[in-house]
């Protein structure tokens, strides 16, 4: 399955409701697993982003649907990166003319 890295920032609403964040994160993990996600890691971070998640998702459509659903609650904004292993990257580079 493809790997994705999600970078998340709390919104004003999210920081105002920070005491509920652990429960929201747990609910999001369960919803992701129900959508077929294999979560590799979820971290609260210091710096530009408040959370970072790494997971394997079935496909781009599933990632987009999940991100829209989570962001629509108003507590976070996401930036999602599709990641490639060194082997996947090497296979892509081999296709270059």
Instruction: Supply the CATH architecture.
Output: 2-Layer Sandwich
Q: From the structure provided, what is the oligomeric state, counting identical versus distinct chains? A: single chain
The whole-number mean of residue pLDDT values reads 94
Based on CA atoms alone, the radius of gyration comes out at 15 Å
Q: Which sequence of SSEs, written as H and E, runs from N to C?
A: EHHEEHEH
Q: What's the number of structural domains?
A: 1
The first-to-last residue Cα distance is 27 Å
Name the strands of the widest sheet in spatial order.
2-3-1-4
Biggest sheet layout = 4 strands, antiparallel
Features:
alpha+beta, Alpha-Beta Plaits, elongated
Topology (elements, then pairings):
Elements: E1 3-10, H1 12-16, H2 21-34, E2 38-44, E3 51-56, H3 60-71, E4 76-83, H4 86-94
Antiparallel strand pairs: 1-3, 1-4, 2-3
